[in-house]
Each structure stands twice: as C-alpha cells, then as structure tokens.
C-alpha cells in the first residue's frame, strides 16, 4: 500500500503540482529578456539551435523555451532517464514541450543519436542543462559541444536570475523561483562549433561555453539586483 501511494505521488500528483506551479510563475512574475536579438535570425529562418543553461536555472530556462514555441520554434528538452527524470518528463509533457530522455551518464549514445536526429531531421531545437544531471555544477560537459559539431546547430548560452527564490539543498544549489518575482533572462551570442576541429579545440569550446554561461549568470544577477534598488 505504501509503495502504491508513493508511486501515485511521484507519477501523478507531483507532476500535476509542479505543472500548476510553473504556470503560476509564468502568470505572476515580471520577466525581462536581454539579448533576444541573438535568436531572431534563427527564428526567422527556422534553423535549429542548442539552448544551453545551468541546471540550477532550469525553471525559467524552460519557461523561455516555451515562449519560443509561440514564435514557431520547435523545441525539445533533454531529460535524465532517472526516476526523478520521470517527473520532469511528465511536467514537460503537460506543458507541451517535447522530451528526449538520456544523459552522459546513462544511455548517452542513444540520447546523442536521438538528439542528432531531432536536430537534423525534425529541425528541432534541443534545450540542455549542460552541467546536469549530477554536476559538477557550472561546468559545461563535452556532449553538447560534440552535438553542435556534428549537427551544425549553434550553442546558445542563456542564464536567468530572479528576485525571490528558495535554494534547495542539492548538488547545484538549485533555486526555486517564488511567485511575483522579477526575473531577468539573458541570451548570449551564438557559439558556432566547426565540424573539423581537434579534441583540444573541442575542450576550448567547452571552456568557452562554461565561461560564457557564468558571465551571463553574473549579468542576470546584477540586473535583478539593480531592479530591486529602484523599486
């Protein structure tokens, strides 16, 4: 009986609550976006991109990807094949976002194949928490750089910060935004990875993505702090 209740809670109740909460955040938070012009060319030409963000900032990164769907961008999100990923899968499905299961730790080759096909055949833009699912926090992994190399889709670094939040005790210090927050999203310039590069150059792109995401995170936090001063 206890096992059944836990299963129902995880598979049904938790996704429903989280879906409702994300919709509440979207309705009540003031969302500012900087750098949206970095996406206009890709949106206009319906070219796939690889939005990249830190796992800590996933909530409003996903909300931003939902807004791109309203502009005609076909989006999916890479989700871990773990049990926790099952909840994320259900929430994203409820929100109308495509899901690709997999990570660098589990079923990595299959996930890479599925993502490549989604990009190349379906012209789908695949969002990825590039330090997930287990970290180290704020260090981009090599998989997304390899995907950019193979597919030709540019990496789009993006970060966000919010004025009211709760930090969870997790490996990435994940923050849960609170309703009626001021949210700042910052979209960085595209990073194009050439097809013919050496392993050393791939590592350089990996570091470049890490540095860019950390700089954008700082920028988003500074902008939110400046809003608070003038309110």
Descriptive account of the structure:
The protein has seven helices and nine strands, in the order H-E-H-E-H-E-H-E-H-E-H-E-E-E-E-H. The protein is an alpha/beta fold and 231 residues long. The protein has a single domain, classed as Glycerol-3-phosphate (1)-acyltransferase, CATH 3.40.1130.10. The strands form two sheets. It has a seven-stranded mixed β-sheet with strand order 1-9-6-2-5-3-4, with helices on both faces. It has a two-stranded antiparallel ribbon with strand order 7-8. Helix 1 crosses helix 4 and helix 5 runs parallel beside helix 6. The longest helix has 32 residues. It starts with a helix and ends with a helix. The N terminus is likely disordered.
SSE layout:
Elements: H1 2-28, E1 30-34, H2 40-45, E2 50-53, H3 58-69, E3 75-79, H4 83-95, E4 98-101, H5 108-120, E5 125-129, H6 142-151, E6 155-162, E7 165-167, E8 175-177, E9 182-187, H7 199-230
Parallel strand pairs: 1-9, 2-5, 2-6, 3-4, 3-5
Antiparallel strand pairs: 6-9, 7-8
What is this structure, in a nutshell?
The chain is of the alpha/beta class and 231 residues long. The chain is 49% helix and 19% strand. The chain has a single domain (2-230), classed as Glycerol-3-phosphate (1)-acyltransferase (3-Layer(aba) Sandwich), CATH 3.40.1130.10.
């Amino acid at each position: 009986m206890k096992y059944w209740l836990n299963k129902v809670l995880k598979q049904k109740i938790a996704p429903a609550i989280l879906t409702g909460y994300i919709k509440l955040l979207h309705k009540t938070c003031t969302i500012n976006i900087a750098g949206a012009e970095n996406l206009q060319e890709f949106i206009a030409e319906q070219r796939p991109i690889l939005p990249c963000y830190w796992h800590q900032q996933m909530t409003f990164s996903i909300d931003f990807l939902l807004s791109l769907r309203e502009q005609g961008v076909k989006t999916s999100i890479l989700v871990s094949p773990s049990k926790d990923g099952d909840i994320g899968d259900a929430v994203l499905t409820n929100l109308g976002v495509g899901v690709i299961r997999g990570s660098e730790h589990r079923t990595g080759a299959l996930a890479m194949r599925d993502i490549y096909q989604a990009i190349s055949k379906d012209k789908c833009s695949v969002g990825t928490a590039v330090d997930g699912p287990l970290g180290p926090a704020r260090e981009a992994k090599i998989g997304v750089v390899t995907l950019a190399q193979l597919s030709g889709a540019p990496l789009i670094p993006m970060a966000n910060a919010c004025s009211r939040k709760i930090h969870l005790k997790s490996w990435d210090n994940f923050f849960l935004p609170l309703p009626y927050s001021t949210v700042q999203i910052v979209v960085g310039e595209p990073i194009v990875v050439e097809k013919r590069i050496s392993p050393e150059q791939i590592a350089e792109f990996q570091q470049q993505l890490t540095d860019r995401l950390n700089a954008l995170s700082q920028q988003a936090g500074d902008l939110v702090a400046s809003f608070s001063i003038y309110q």
